[in-house]
TrEMBL record:
Matching Pfam families: PDZ_2, Trypsin_2
Annotated family: Belongs to the peptidase S1C family.
InterPro entries: Chloro_Bact_Ser_Proteases, PDZ, PDZ_sf, Peptidase_S1_PA, Peptidase_S1_PA_chymotrypsin, Peptidase_S1C
Protein source organism: Paramaledivibacter caminithermalis (strain DSM 15212 / CIP 107654 / DViRD3) (Clostridium caminithermale)
Species classification: Bacteria, Bacillati, Bacillota, Clostridia, Peptostreptococcales
Keyword presence, Membrane: yes
Descriptive protein name: Serine protease Do
Domain PDZ: 305-391
Length: 405
């Protein structure tokens, strides 16, 4: 214990030793400036000598080793002489095609009379598109899809300038989903009628997968809508409940209302009539068009006759494939499920329960094959059909193909 305060302070001084730090002397600015100038002079002289020596050495090395020095490798351009690059937007070929073909594409509104559950009649409207394929002295001829005007009591056509005119149905063909309409030029103002032009029809047989495809139509009521894609595939077989179609596939957007519109190539030629879009949440960009080369003969026949003449046998059939043949001990072919009264088959003696095994010398394995063979014939052609009756009776029958009504 410390006796007093002074003794405590004395002992603290003995324990804690305080060392004084030496004070650094600051160099004067004048001395620093002089030293810097001297160093710069010496350094500059050294660098200059070194550069000169290096240049002399490298020049000699280059000459001795056959290396030629290029003069004026970098050229300084006077900015006052430089010209600004101007972007001149040239005309798009797609835009040119849209302008050229657009006036030949029309919107179609069909009015169908329908009845509800309470037998009340009302008018239901449908929309589609069409392509003007011929313009003559008195008429404007339009091709569209059969399903656009099927059952229509009234058809109204909207031309490229939003002028409307009534149209008559010349003929329809449900087998190919094609229809032809006619507008009387008298129903169109003369100044407008004189400007109407027919679209150029191309050649769908020379199409290639990957080439440009332009769809022009009336989707959702928006006239002359243009979408662009490519030809995705050719000869796509699409099976519908009542028919089979071979179509051109494209990823150019084809939406409701586009039906009957034009699928156009890069030359502005119609290569197809838009008809179907696959609607599925799992896929997008799959649309189809009727090849124009398939449509041309149908269009011509509809114009001339109002309908398409097709040969007709008059049966409902089911396939007997190998498995069914072995299971039921039946011959392979087409099982006749029913015969239409007074049809070619009925007149020839074909009966329900018969199995058609041969048509014009060709063995039959499916209803599809039989249908294609019948289509290859003409109305009035005589054909030989071989059948099996009651499982063991083989018969040869002759039929005269009738026109399908």
């Amino acid at each position: 214990m410390f006796d007093n305060k002074n003794e405590f302070l004395r002992d603290c001084k003995e324990i804690v030793e305080v060392k004084s730090r030496p004070v650094k002397r600051r160099k004067s600015f004048k001395n620093i400036l002089i030293f810097g100038i001297i160093f710069s002079i010496i350094g500059g002289f050294s660098i200059g000598v070194g550069y000169k020596f290096s240049e002399s050495y490298l020049s000699g090395y280059a000459q001795n080793n056959g290396i030629v020095k290029e003069e004026n490798q970098t050229e300084i351009i006077d900015s006052s002489l430089a010209q600004k690059v101007k972007y001149n937007q040239t005309s798009s070929p797609i835009a040119d095609i849209a302008e050229e073909v657009g006036p030949s594409i029309v919107a179609i509104t069909s009015k169908v009379k329908v009845r509800d559950w309470f037998d009340n009649q009302y008018v239901q409207e449908g929309q589609g598109s069409g392509v003007i394929f011929d313009v003559n002295n008195g008429d404007v001829m339009i091709v569209t899809n059969e399903h656009v005007v099927d059952g229509a009591a009234e058809v109204l056509v909207t031309l490229y300038n939003n002028k409307k005119a009534p149209a008559n149905i010349v003929g329809i063909d449900s087998e190919t989903d094609l229809a032809v309409l006619r507008i009387d030029k008298k129903d169109i103002p003369k100044d407008i009628a004189n400007k109407i032009v027919a679209a150029k029809l191309g050649d769908s047989d020379i199409l290639r997968v990957g080439e440009t495809a332009i769809a022009i139509g009336n989707p959702m009521g928006y006239n002359n809508t243009v979408t662009v894609g490519v030809i995705s595939a050719l000869n796509r077989e699409i099976r519908l409940p009542d028919k089979k179609l071979e179509l051109v596939q494209t990823d150019a957007a084809i939406n409701p209302g586009n039906s009957g519109g034009a699928l156009v190539n890069i030359n502005g030629e119609v290569i197809g009539i838009n008809t179907i879009k696959i609607t599925d949440t799992k896929v997008e960009g799959i649309g189809f068009a009727i090849p124009i080369n398939s449509a041309k003969p149908i269009i011509n026949e509809l114009v001339e006759n109002g309908s398409v003449s097709r040969p007709y046998l008059g049966i409902y059939g089911k396939d007997i494939d190998k498995n069914i043949s072995e299971l039921y001990e039946l011959p392979m072919g087409v099982f006749v499920a029913d015969v239409i009264e007074k049809s070619a088959a009925d007149i020839a003696g074909i009966k329900k329960g018969d199995v058609i095994i041969e048509f014009e010398g060709e063995k039959i394995f499916s209803m599809e094959q039989l249908s294609q063979l019948i289509k290859s014939k003409e109305v009035g052609d005589k054909v030989i059909i071989k059948i099996i009756r009651n499982g063991n009776q083989k018969k040869e029958l002759k039929a005269v193909l009738q026109e399908k009504s």
